[in-house]
Amino acid sequence: LRNPRFVVLYGSQKGQAQSIAEGIAEEAQERGLVAELSCLNQNEKYNLEKEKAPVVFIVSTTGDGEPPDNALQFVKRIKQKTLSTDHYEHLCYALLALGDTNYANFCNCGKTVERRLQELGAKQFYATGYADDGVGLELVIDPWLEGLWKAIKGALSKMASDRIAPSRGDSPKETPDLSAPDVEFNLLSLNGQQSCKSGRASVDTDSKCASVASSFASATQMSISDLRPPSSAGKSPLNVPALPPPYLDVSLQDIVGQLNKESVHEVPIYRAVQLTRGDSVKTALLLELDISAHPTMAYEPGDSFDVFCPNRATEVEEMLHRLGLHDQRNHQVHISLKKDHKKKGAQVPSYMSPNISLLHLLTWCLEIRSVPKKAFLRALVEHTGDGVQRRRLQELCSKQGAADYNLYVRDPSLSALEFLTAFPSCSPPLSLLIEHLPKLQPRPYSAASSTLKHPGKLHFVFNVVDIPACNGRPAGRRGLCTGWLFDLINRGLVFPGKVERSGSLALPKIHVSLRPNCSFRPPSDSSVPFIMVGPGTGVAPFIGFLQQRQENPEAVFGETWLFFGCRHRDGDYLFREELEGFVSRGVLNHLEVCFSRDDPAQEEVGASVSRPRYVQHNLLLNSQNVAEILLRQSGHLYVCGDAKNMAKDVNNTLVAMVSTELQVDQLEAMKTLAKLREEKRYLQDIWG
């Protein structure tokens, strides 16, 4: 007899959804099932129009609620209005959506797929899971996966029963379990002061928390006693995930071939200016790139671009020493699939060319600062010699260790290198890092200029990110890309108030790639009014918007508002002279600014907002004008900046404003804003 089959389809931008889908396919084999795994863009490998078996969708969301690149065509296909309402009436499905509540349109791709499947007649055999990266994907993913197998077997059993006796009613015992209470319960139970206690844990979690805390107390000198769990925890059973099957063979060879360069543009940094004063909490820099030799890099205001940055050289050296491969740093890395591997859909990472050196791989290919996933921790167990440390790794990747994993690994964003430092008896092979660490992603930045005013040049602005010390990280560090850029330009940096000198130190070149954002742009009709909200470096794209207007004096322009905020008027008021110049020339009609730290009295709880402290306060003070533009003049609203606080606060303020102006309840106000989003009149360019 053939094993029962089901289909697993995934849409993944950075590999997380793909990894989950592959894990389902691997576990299916252990359970006596056949999982046919495909990416959603591989439509030649599956056929939903004729599929009778259960289908499991794993989909993430990217950008402003957009589908991943490899799911885009699938979403377009199922959204076709010509499809009938019974198009998928034969289909039964389950869906796991990945998203982040720090961003608008949480799990929007998953919700879009589910809505269309149901509109086209598909039936759900298992409750949808909405995993939130803002609090920890595993809080939803783990219980959802645990309940999936019972639901799949129930759906397969029902299908078999229907084929044998289609005239009989569904047997209650064969009806799939559509409930998944753990999915929502775990999501809602998390809070910022989460206790280490867990209702489902079978170990002494209070003692374990203290033990794990001590285990990360020093990342440079870790003693075995620091890692030893209490005797009660050492004897308790753990629910440890299955060992991920290894699938890569990696060898090092002496001769290194010619490196393959990515199809990106290498451009010189023409100028670097510090925008903030020396005593500011944050350091904001403006970099001007010379793109005159690259005519294909034609950008519009609102566009963004990627900066390709390397891992920090000192961290690469540490990793080489940690792997015991420092003497082979210049050897060529040869990567191939194991002949007897058991991983579904296994392939050699496409971003690694066949003739790169080990040094290049660790510098440009792998994100060695990425937070280690639980699957990686589980794989490390097999390469750890000390029994106490093995147990600790098992705890951290187990269900019982979920709170500890969040507290000591995920929340402080410990890197893979920092984590390995805490487990000195762990000696993973290079192949394990290549299998489990993600690709080093380029960092996106918004263009802060218009080519009409700065032909052949591209400006961008960023704050140098400072990451504080913590347990497991004895010293603070800078953000990977912002710290690298700061080091590159530090000697040639121009400070506020200082005259730039000709013949200053030559600045280096960096690799960039344009990523046009066709929606976050000024209205195509210049007479349409619009509102911009951009505190801090979020003002960057709006500088480009306004420069573009300034260079088109003959055009008829609609009314413009800019809401800007920072800590101190004299410390970090970015682009102050240029913004005030836009106002004096009539390019910008209204400039509303606020300074959150200038008046100490405003620090008191309950202080009046008559003198606005944050951009949302200024929006409230101008609510009638904002509502007039958005609700009656068909204007546009653009929000750029921090996703975790500012964007949420602005959105909540808009809900309140719309509710007041239209005299409707909160739900109706939210629907109004959702309609503005659908019409691309409420747009966000935000980051975590």
Automatic annotation (TrEMBL):
Domain Flavodoxin-like: 6-149
Residues annotated as transmembrane: none
Top EC category: oxidoreductase
Entry keyword annotation includes Amino-acid biosynthesis: yes
InterPro entries (alphabetical): CysJ-like_FAD-binding (IPR003097), FAD-bd_FR_type (IPR017927), Flavdoxin-like (IPR001094), Flavodoxin/NO_synth (IPR008254), Flavoprot_Pyr_Nucl_cyt_Rdtase (IPR001709), Flavoprotein-like_sf (IPR029039), FNR_nucleotide-bd (IPR039261), NADPH_Cyt_P450_Rdtase_alpha (IPR023173)
FAD-binding FR-type domain boundaries: 262-523
PROSITE patterns tied to this protein: FAD_FR, FLAVODOXIN_LIKE
Pfam family, one: NAD_binding_1
A GO cellular-component term linked to this record: cytosol
Cofactors, names only: FMN; FAD
GO biological process, one term: methionine biosynthetic process
Enzyme nomenclature, EC number: 1.16.1.8
Gene Ontology molecular function terms on file: [methionine synthase] reductase (NADPH) activity; flavin adenine dinucleotide binding; FMN binding
Keywords: Amino-acid biosynthesis, FAD, Flavoprotein, FMN, Methionine biosynthesis, NADP, Oxidoreductase, S-adenosyl-L-methionine
Name of the molecule in the record: Methionine synthase reductase
Lineage, highest ranks first: Eukaryota, Metazoa, Chordata, Craniata, Vertebrata
Annotated gene: mtrr
